[in-house]
Amino acid sequence: MMNQDMQKVLFSEEEIAQANHNLAQQLMTDYAGKNPLFVCILKGAIVFLTDLMRQLPQSAEIDFMDVSSYNGQTSSSGQVRILKDLDVSVKGRDVVFVEDIIDTGITLKELTQLFKSRQAKSIKIVALLDKEANRQQNVHVDYVGLSCPDEFVVGYGMDYQECYRNLPYIGVLKPEVYSKAEY
């Protein structure tokens, strides 16, 4: 049923796996001998985080933040709300934000500023997808898996109204699926 809602498959399971492998290689090199804190931005990035972490042979900690700016829509509201904060301090830590997709940059810009004020030692961003066409805030994405065109994508953790997260690929949702629900 979910496959019928797709306009097209944008990135296959194989392409995603290769991107994860490449990102893991970069992270292994850059964080050799360190114990970074990977901060997963829920809920979309959880699938990406788990696949990425399984490829890292060195020690790394994880924690989670639930941050919302989409509120069930296909575009950001521009207002970032922290629904769940970290359980650990970032003071003096090397922090790596793990995001499924960087779109407007609003969320990561605010989180980066917040973590600077919390005195993180370093702050980097790893994203499976980078959608530069929608960028509203200047954020530097340190590690990018795949470049994403300006289309509404779901799958591999990304959703539309909490559906489609469990697709093993990333696809473009047919506009008629979400256009009826938006005002």
From TrEMBL:
Catalyzed reaction equations: IMP + diphosphate = hypoxanthine + 5-phospho-alpha-D-ribose 1-diphosphate; GMP + diphosphate = guanine + 5-phospho-alpha-D-ribose 1-diphosphate
EC number(s) given by UniProt: 2.4.2.8
UniProt cross-references to Gene3D superfamilies, sorted A to Z: 3.40.50.2020
Entry keywords, A to Z: Cytoplasm, Glycosyltransferase, Magnesium, Metal-binding, Nucleotide-binding, Purine salvage, Transferase
Pathway: Purine metabolism; GMP biosynthesis via salvage pathway; GMP from guanine: step 1/1; Purine metabolism; IMP biosynthesis via salvage pathway; IMP from hypoxanthine: step 1/1
Any one Pfam family match given in the protein's UniProt record, by short name: Pribosyltran
UniProt-annotated location(s): Cytoplasm
Phosphoribosyltransferase domain: residues covered: 12-161
EC category name: transferase
Record GO terms (molecular function): glycosyltransferase activity
Necessary cofactors: Mg(2+)
CDD domains per UniProt: PRTases_typeI (cd06223)
Claim: Cytoplasm is one of the keywords in the record: yes
The organism's place on the tree of life at top rank: Bacteria
Predominant location category: cytoplasm
InterPro entries the UniProt entry points to: HGPRT, Hxn_phspho_trans, PRTase-like, PRTase_dom
Job description of the protein: Purine salvage pathway enzyme that catalyzes the transfer of the ribosyl-5-phosphate group from 5-phospho-alpha-D-ribose 1-diphosphate (PRPP) to the N9 position of the 6-oxopurines hypoxanthine and guanine to form the corresponding ribonucleotides IMP (inosine 5'-monophosphate) and GMP (guanosine 5'-monophosphate), with the release of PPi.
Record-stated family: Belongs to the purine/pyrimidine phosphoribosyltransferase family.
Protein name as annotated: Hypoxanthine phosphoribosyltransferase
Gene that encodes it: hpt
